[in-house]
Amino acid sequence: MASPTQSSSAAADGETPVSSAVPTPTPISSAANGTPAASTDLEEVPSKTPRETEPQDAHKVAGVRRKLKSLVWDEFERVLVGGKMKAECQWCHNKLVGETKDGTSHLRAHLVTCPARQTTTAWKQAKLKLTKGEDGKVNVENYVFDQELCRKQLSLMLCCHEYPLAIVDHAGFRKFCSILQPMFKVVSRQTIRKDIIEMHEGQRDKMIKYFANFKNRVAVTSDLWIAGHQRRGYMAVTAHYIDGSWNLKSFLLRFVYVPAPHTATVLCEVLHEVLVEFHLERKISTITLDNCTTNDKAVEELQDKLDSSSLKLGGKMLHMRCCAHILNLIVKDGLAVLGDGIERVRDSVGFWSATPKRHEKFEKTCRLMNIDYSKRLSLDCKTRWNSTYIMLSIAVLYRDVFDRLSLREKQFNCCPSTADWNFAKEMIERLKLFYDITSLWSGKHYVTANLFFPKVCGINLAIRKWTTPTYMQLDEMPEQIRQQYQIMQQMYEEMKKKFDKYWSDVHGLMAIATVLDLRYKLHMLQALYGSLYGPEAACIEVARVKMMLRELLVEYQDDSSAATTSGSSAEPAVKQGEDEVFDIFDQYMSSQPTVSAMLVHTELDLYLEEPTLPRTKDFDIINW
Q1: Is 425 left (phi over 0), alpha (psi -120 to 50) or beta?
Q2: CA angle 453, 459, 464 (to 5 degrees)
Q3: 250-253 contacts: CB < 8 A, separation 24 or more?
Q4: What's the rounded mean pLDDT across residues 543-553?
Q5: Which of 26, 45, 435, 559 could form a cystine bridge with 41, CB 3.0-4.6 A?
Q6: Pairwise CA distance, residues 32 & 15, whole Å
C-alpha cells in the first residue's frame, strides 16, 4: 500500500491533463523525489499484469539508457518501429509514441479506455468495502468495481425517482460521480435512455414468459389517463395475482398510447392487444374499470373477443366496477349541494394562506397562543372531496387562532361563526368515514376483496342513519342551524340516491369474498342483510350468494390444480363506520347455537359448517 508521501508526490509529474471526455485518473508516474505513486490510482490495476504472465519478446524491446520508473510501463513495452521508439500496449497491442520527450500521459489515458483491458475481467483487483449487517455490525467485504452494474443502478435510480435523463449531462453530477468513484465513466443522456429501454424490454420479455406458464387466474385493472401538456390519452393496464409462494403481486403490463377518439371499440382493441401479448386472454378472473358507459360497452365487446369457456360463470363476473371510484362519485354528489355551508371556513383558510406574510403572521399567532402549528393550512380543490376533508380537519385545529386574528386584523372579515365551526366538525365526522375507507381500499400490500362488503354495508347504514332526524324538530332549531341541517339532509339524500344506484352492481362478488374470510363466512351476510332488508329478505340474499359460490366451486373443480401463493395482508384499522357493522355481527353471532357435527357433502360445506375464527385486526388471510 502506498504511503501518503507516495500519493502526494504524483502531483509533481508535470504531465498535461486528459480531455474532459475521459475521466482523469490520478497521475502515476514518478514524482520529484523519485518515489512511485500508488498503483490503485489506475482505473482497475490487475493483480498481475501481462508483463508478468506473458513471455516477453526480447527482440522487440529496445535498449534503454535509464530505468523507466513510471508504473505505466508495467503494461507497455518499448519497441522500435521504423527507427522510431513506440510504446506497445500489452492488452490490445496498439502502438503509441514512446519517446522519452513524449511523456506518459497519453499512455495512462489509453489504459483507461483500452477495450481489451476493460473486458478482461480475470484481472480485476478486489478491494475492500464496509457494509452494515442485519445486526448493525460493520462488516468488511471484497468489492470489485463493475461499470455495467453501476450503469444499471443509475438507470433504476432515474426511473424510481423520475429524475430527468439530462441529469447525467450536468457538470455537477459528473463531478460528484468522479469524486465518489473515479473509475465510473458517466454515460450520455442518449446512452442512459438506451439502457432504460433495454432494461424495460428485458423485464417485459421475462413477464411474458412467466405469464405464458402461469396456471392461476389474474385480475386486471385498467385506467385511462390524459396527459395535460400533450392532450393525449394513455391506458395503464395492471395485473394482480398471487404467485406460487403465496405472495400478492401487482405488475404494470403496459402504459400504452390510446388514439382518439376514446370510444368503446378503441379501448377494447387496446386492452385486448395487451392481454394477448401477455398470454392472459384465457386466464382472466375479473377486469376492474371506472364506472362509465364507455367502459361498460368496452367490456361487452371484449367479452365477445374472449373465449367464453375460459371465463368464470360464462363471464357474469368478468366486469367489476371500481368501488373507490363509486365511493368518490357518492361523496362528490353529496358535497355538490353544500353551497355556502363551509364557504366561510374556506375563505378564512384562503385568506391566511394567500401570501407568505399572512401565513407568517398566522404561524406567529399560533406560537403566541402556545398552539402547536404542526399541520399547515391547506386550501382545498373544490373538485376533490378528499382535499375538502383535509382542509376542514386542519382548520378546526386552529379555531381559536382564527378568532384571535379576527379581532386584530381589520381585513379579515370572513371569520367563521360558532355555528359554522359546529357544521364543519359534523362534516369532518361524516367525511372521515369515506376518507378512511378509501384509504383502506387503496392498499397495495394486502388483500382488499374481503374488506369491501362490511365497509360498503357500513356506508349504507351510516347514510340511512344520517337521513333520519336524531334530535329536535326543524321548527325548534335556530334559523342558521336549521338552514345548515337542511343542507346536510339534502346532501345525504343525494348520497343515498347514488349509493342505491350502484349497490346492486357491487355487493354480489364482494359478498363471496367476505364468505371466504374465516372470521365472517355466511354469518356476516346473515347479520348485515338482516339489518338492511329484514330476516326474510336476508335469507333470500344469502341463498343467492351461496348458490353463486357453489357454481364457482364446480368450475374450479374442473380446472387443473392451482399453484400455491403467499404474501402479507395485514388489515389496517378503520375505526369509524365499522363499529356499528361489527356490533350487529357480534349480536347476531351471540344468538347462534353452537354448530354440531353433521354430514357434509363438499369441501365448501365443511368450510361453512366450521366455526369462525376470532376477529382480530392483524389477521392475515393469505398467510392463513
Answers
A1: alpha
A2: 125
A3: 250/444, 251/207, 253/207, 253/220, 253/277, 253/278
A4: 83
A5: 26
A6: 12
Taking the C-alpha atoms of residue 507 and residue 513, their distance in angstroms, rounded to an integer, is 10
d(CA 509, CA 525): 12
334/344 Cα distance (integer angstroms): 19
For residue 135 the three cell numbers come to 445486526
Q: How far is CA 501 from CA 210, 286, 329, 512, in A?
A: 40, 21, 11, 20
Distances (CA, A) of 522 to 196, 265, 512: 50, 40, 9
E-strand stretches of 275-396: 284-289, 319-321
Angle at 349 between CA 343 and CA 352, to 5 degrees: 135
| Structure confidence at residue 547 as a pLDDT band (50, 70, 90) | confident
In whole angstroms, give the CA distance from residue 165 to residue 560.
47
User: What's the Cα-to-Cα distance from 130 to each of 127, 140, 146, 177, 500, rounded to whole Å?
Assistant: 10, 5, 17, 19, 62
Q: Are 23 and 66 in contact (CB under 8 A)?
A: no
Query: Are 379 and 391 in contact, with CB atoms under 8 Å apart?
Result: yes
**Is the Cβ–Cβ distance between 395 and 424 less than 8 Å?**
yes
Cis peptide before 416 (omega within 30 of 0): no
> Could you give the CA distance from residue 447 to residue 568 in angstroms, rounded to a whole number?
8
Q: How far, in Å, are 16, 55, 86, 90, 135 from residue 102 at the CA level?
A: 11, 27, 10, 19, 55
User: CA-CA distance, 599 to 606, in Å (whole number)?
Assistant: 9
In angstroms, the CA 276 to CA 310 distance is 14
For residue 338, how many C-alpha atoms fall within 13 Å in the half-sphere facing its CB? 23
Place of cell 428485458: 202
Amino acid at 14: G
C-alpha cell of residue 353: 394562506
Distances (CA, A) of 172 to 153, 164, 176, 180, 181: 19, 14, 6, 12, 14
Tell me the per-residue pLDDT of 82-139, one tens digit each, with 9 for 90 and over: 888 899 998 888 889 888 888 888 888 888 888 777 765 444 555 666 677 666 677 7
Which triple of cell numbers denotes residue 140? 468488511
Residue 353: count other Cβ atoms within 10 Å of its Cβ: 16
> How is residue 15 written as a grid cell?
504531465
Residue 284 pairs with which residues in a beta bridge? 218
Contact 330, 495 (CB under 8 A): yes
Q: What is the pLDDT of residues 212-240, one digit of tens each?
A: 999 888 999 998 888 767 778 899 999 99
Name the strand (E) or helix (H) holding 232: strand 232-242
pLDDT band at 31 (very low <50, low <70, confident <90, very high): very low
Which residues make beta-bridge pairs with 242? 248
Closest CA to 541 of 514, 577, 579: 514
Is the pTM higher than 0.85? no
**Which residue has cell 475521459?**
22
Q: Compute the distance between CA of residue 516 and CA of residue 25 in angstroms, rounded to an integer.
A: 65
What does the alpha-carbon distance between residue 193 and residue 187 come to, in Å, rounded to a whole number? 10
pLDDT mean over 331-353: 79
First and final CA of the chain: distance in angstroms? 57
